TrEMBL record:
Its EC number is 4.1.3.4. Residues 12-279 form the Pyruvate carboxyltransferase domain. GO terms for biological process: ketone body biosynthetic process; L-leucine catabolic process. This is Hydroxymethylglutaryl-CoA lyase. InterPro entries: Aldolase_TIM, HMGL, PYR_CT. Keywords: Lyase, Metal-binding. SUPFAM superfamilies: Aldolase. Coiled coil: none annotated. Pfam families: HMGL-like. It is an enzyme of class 4 (lyase). CDD domains: DRE_TIM_HMGL. GO terms for molecular function: hydroxymethylglutaryl-CoA lyase activity; metal ion binding. It comes from Schinkia azotoformans LMG 9581. Belongs to the HMG-CoA lyase family.
Length: 307
């Protein structure tokens, strides 16, 4: 298909998940005040959505043990949605105390990953999420659902579209307003993305879907292009390509916000994000994690003085 014939949206919402999905896999603890400052810098970039933390048990993700303090201490910008991942009712208590704007619940499309990630079967997960979703909605919050391992599982391999649809059906029935489809281990290819999305779009409107790609094998932006052509205009990403899943071996490297932003803006698709401020925020967190960010954009920035 010729690129000129692709039906691209005029604008896209980039949902920054770096402070949660990006940092959760970092071994070196990032100081609370640095997390707060980084989120404040992200708020100044023009991003309209930032997932700031996760209210999970600290023993599972020690990096985010300061969730409540972070959420209570950041500067709130009126045009930014501040979201947090919530696994259960106890986590919801913290999220509501912190007054986040959106609650995100999560589960997997594959049984093995769900057991490893949540310690419950898929069928046993729904009763846990139901009161979380209902209570969040009753509190005036929007609710988002994540489905992991949509395109492949580290334990089971291929995952059927029917398995994805079963989970998606139940989550929408429970009341979520948006569903993010995750390529948790970065195995998806453009043809597969098209096949799965056509199945999902036959059941649910494109406005209620988002894509969460990992760049583990270098296919994330190609997969974004396929999703764009099918009408998807919401994409999760982490600045600099931070992160991965602690329960999916080898799942390093979220799609980098800076790489996604570069591609979209140069294709004439508006994001509302200021590139200079975005790169400043990337440089800041790079200095705090103590290692170089893997995104192509950051590598290019470092190489500008090369001859």
């Amino acid at each position: 298909m010729l690129l000129n014939n692709i039906n691209l949206p005029s604008s896209v919402t980039i949902k920054e998940v770096g402070p949660r999905d990006g940092l959760q896999n970092e071994n070196q603890f990032i100081q609370t005040e640095d997390k707060i400052q980084w989120i404040n810098m992200l708020s100044e970039t023009g991003l309209s959505y930032i997932e700031i933390t996760s209210f999970v048990n600290p023993k599972w993700i020690p990096q985010l043990a300061d969730a409540l303090q972070v959420a209570k201490s950041i500067n709130r910008y009126k045009n930014v949605t501040y979201a947090a991942l919530v696994p259960n009712e106890r986590g919801l208590e913290g999220a509501l105390e912190a007054n986040v704007d959106e609650v995100a619940v999560f589960m997997s499309a594959s049984e093995s990953h769900n057991l490893k990630n949540i310690n419950k079967s898929i069928n046993d997960t729904f009763p846990i999420l139901k009161p979380v979703i209902q209570e969040a909605l009753a509190a005036g919050k929007t609710v988002r659902g994540y489905v992991s391992t949509v395109f492949g599982c580290p334990y089971e391999g291929a995952v059927s579209a029917d398995a994805v649809l079963t989970v998606a059906d139940e989550l929408f029935t429970l009341g979520i307003q948006e569903l993010s489809l995750g390529d948790t281990i970065g195995v998806a290819n453009p043809k597969q993305v098209e096949e799965v999305l056509l199945e999902v779009l036959s059941r649910f409107p494109k406005e209620r879907l988002a894509m969460h790609f990992h760049n583990t094998r270098g296919t994330a932006l190609a997969n974004v292009l396929v999703a764009l052509n099918l009408g998807i205009s919401n994409f999760d990403s982490a600045l600099g390509g931070l992160g991965g899943c602690p329960y999916a071996p080898g799942a390093s490297g979220n799609l980098a916000t800076d790489d996604l932003h570069y591609m979209l803006e140069n294709m004439g698709i508006k994001t509302g994000i200021n590139r200079d401020q975005l790169l400043n925020a990337a440089l800041f967190i790079e200095g705090k994690i103590g290692k170089l960010l893997p995104s192509h954009t950051m590598q290019t920035e470092r190489g500008k003085n090369c001859t």
